[in-house]
């Protein structure tokens, strides 16, 4: 038995080939940027993309607090630090209370607890809302009979006009029918518009994804518009 085990005792230690990975040694090492090649400036060069690393968390919080929710969504794609900071419920709570201020704070608090699992961000993403940072535009057409010429032809005209609506967080909105483009109408879509601009105002209500807007024309009965958000 001993003679059979002698060759095994003569074996040397096993050796394994390890692939060298020098880039692993750079993890956690901060490399200071250098000035661009050929630059005559003696000042150190700092990458502007890394400026958020120099800002304290308090200042970064104040910057995010003044951004719109749509800008916050874009800012969350910048880096991991921004994404974690923007997930703070304070930003989304103020956005939700402003977007649905017509419902009242108490109703919004009840809704976020019962339907959205205490997450204001989830409420902002899933609950239907009316955007108040622009104009809603719909293009409408109809056919109108023209004046016959020489009693030979019976022409028709394809009339095109646009319906503009601008909503406000308080529940009020502005309404205007015009054949002009957006760049010409957007200037007068405010409460300072004159009567010559033919801008009418009204009140709107939002129930789930259904919107009811009541327009009051001068000298006429209120007109109710109903549409669904998608």
From TrEMBL:
Protein keywords: Nucleus, Ubl conjugation pathway
A Pfam family per the record: F-box-like
GO biological process: protein ubiquitination; SCF-dependent proteasomal ubiquitin-dependent protein catabolic process
Domain F-box: 49-95
Any one cellular-component term (Gene Ontology): nucleus
Known pathway: Protein modification; protein ubiquitination
InterPro entries documented for this protein: F-box-like_dom_sf, F-box_dom, Hrt3/FBXO9_C
Principal subcellular localization: nucleus
Keyword Nucleus: yes
Location within or outside the cell: Nucleus
Keyword presence, Heme: no
Function: Acts as a component of a SCF E3 ubiquitin ligase complexes.
Subunit structure and binding partners: Component of the SCF-type E3 ligase complex.
PANTHER family: F-BOX ONLY PROTEIN 48, F-BOX ONLY PROTEIN 48-RELATED
Protein's name according to its UniProt entry: F-box protein
Source organism: Aquilegia coerulea
